[in-house]
Amino acid sequence: MINIYGIKTCSTVRKAIKFCKDNELEYTFIDFRAEPLSEEKVKYFASKVDINLLFNNRGTKYKDLGLKDLNLDEDGKLEWLCKENMLLKRPVVEYKEDKVLISFNQDLYESELLVN
Description:
With 116 residues, the protein is an alpha+beta fold.
């Protein structure tokens, strides 16, 4: 089972969902704007991928919060991700029970998600 975390208005989230539909992959979409992720779930993602990959420092929320001026280290980034899910780079794709992909990359999705 594949879990896709993100927001429905995000273009890369829509690409991930389309990829799953086109390849007849069973998935569940979790809109973290409507259903905020738990601190434990965010920490789990951070344990699976580099925090710098998970943390979106190009988005509107990052700029609105003025986080660039804080010069956050990895602990600071994790703390902010736990309290503000919109700082997560989207989508976060959880699959094979313990694997996580960040963003959308067609080749990576094909090699990771289409393997029997």
